[in-house]
Amino acid sequence: MIPYESLKILNRPFEEKFKARFAGFLEKGWYVLGEEVSLFEEEFAAYHDEKYVAGVANGLDALILSLRCCNFKKGDEVIVPSNTYIATILAIIQAGLIPVLVEPDSRTYNIDPAAIPAAITDRTVAIMVVHLYGQCCEMDPIMELAAQHQLKVIEDCAQAHGAKYKGKLAGTFGDFGAFSFYPTKNLGALGDAGAVLCKTEADYLKIKQLRNYGSEKKYHNGIIGYNSRLDELQASFLRIKLPYLDEINTHKRKLAQLYTENLNDSFIKPKSDPDFYNVFHIYNILHPERDRLKQYLLENNIGTEVHYPVAPQDQPALKDYLRSFDYPVSAKIHQQTLSLPCSFAHTEADVLGVIRILNKFHS
Ligand SMILES: *Cc1c(COP(=O)(O)O)cnc(C)c1O
Prior knowledge:
There is one protein chain. This protein folds into 2 domains: about 5-105 and about 110-245, Type I PLP-dependent aspartate aminotransferase-like (Major domain) (Aspartate Aminotransferase, domain 2, 3-Layer(aba) Sandwich); about 245-360, Aspartate Aminotransferase, domain 1 (Alpha-Beta Complex). By secondary structure, the protein is α/β, with parallel strands linked by helices. It contains 12 helices and 14 strands. The radius of gyration is 20 Å and the shape is globular. Helices cover about 35% and strands about 15% of the residues. The strands form 4 sheets. A 7-stranded mixed sheet has the order 1-9-8-5-4-2-3, with helices on both faces. A 3-stranded antiparallel sheet has the order 7-6-12, with no helix packed on it. The structure holds pyridoxal-5'-phosphate (PLP). Pyridoxal-5'-phosphate binds next to α4 and α5.
């Protein structure tokens, strides 16, 4: 069996270091907002050649706190891609704002910059882009639009640690880069964790305040905050894995390249483009008979996933929150997309095995 993902195998190379770090953690006896969180924040900032990273509890909170940091007014509108994981849209709703969905480009699966202007109104305050599947959005036209209309830009980088557009890292374009370190992400903790990369010291200090009950100083609360601190133990594990992030990404890119070069043309594959350094959080293909293909692979002992089986506009939870429910580009991607094994836990031989079986599929 080739499973879609195996976290145990993925983390095996780090196990001894995790154990040693945990022993040190027990010894120290400092459990919340200690040295490990501060050091991880510094190291993750340095990875991006930036100064301000605030650790938070998870990726959803990273998005919510970024929005809250901007002091938008209730009912203000935020532009977001129709093709995303629901967390991005939930963050907007949880922050008291209105999500305005914009269709993706069918070639990149990411928000189509050309479709954004039609969605801008006098209530629009921000664009929340999502670098889906590990590929950056086309940030040049997006940043230009944001500047023209004075919109904040928040990047959902949950799937894009180390991804680049024109040589620049995901999370460093907008006002905020929101990261998740959920265990399956390219940089994954052993539990929930997240971070916000901020452009200004003021935003960084405010995110730190928001994550800790709105308090700047113990028991003094200036604003309404949350309990959304990055866990000290998770920070210590992330510090062990961060130096290997580039190696993890290189490995996933190598597997992706094997798929792209060897899968036959009955599958629609991700397009390569020199402007984009794709870190393949997910390697997906499109196929009109996706469900039958998924079943066929399962019968051949190959695990796959669908990201995502239900489009946001079809989620019952969102029925009172969206203005339109008609997003044909996104709907088609949701119907046809299939994610193939492409993890740090997989070998090239695993992927060549998957390719051999896939190329024998008769549609
Ligand atoms: C994983 C993910 C999130 C949410 O991250 P959590 O840490 O699970 O809260 C948000 N957006 C996208 C695109 C994701 O893939």
